[in-house]
Design goal:
Layout: H1 5-42, H2 44-81
Length: 82
């Protein structure tokens, strides 16, 4: 007796979600252990690095986004003009 399609879809989604939960848990444990090791090994230099990279990543993301938007607007403007 073959399972119907709905049962197969439900089993697939449940299995996928279970695997993703384990993957995210492993990633979370890795991040926490790495941060604890960094604090223990490097102390306040590690905190300074985290703050520096966080601020740099924030600005890099938004500068890239605004540059992308500017490129889109410029392309649309040129299409209208030509």
């Amino acid at each position: 007796m073959k399972p119907n399609l709905k049962e197969l879809q439900d089993k697939t989604v449940n299995t996928t979600m279970s695997i993703l939960r384990w993957i995210f848990l492993i990633i979370l444990i890795y991040v926490v252990l790495t941060m604890l090791w960094g604090f223990w090994d490097q102390g306040d230099k590690f905190i300074k690095d985290i703050v520096t990279f966080s601020i740099g990543g924030f600005f890099a993301f938004f500068l890239g986004y605004f540059g992308w938007r500017l490129g889109q607007e410029l392309e649309e403007w040129l299409k209208r003009r030509l």
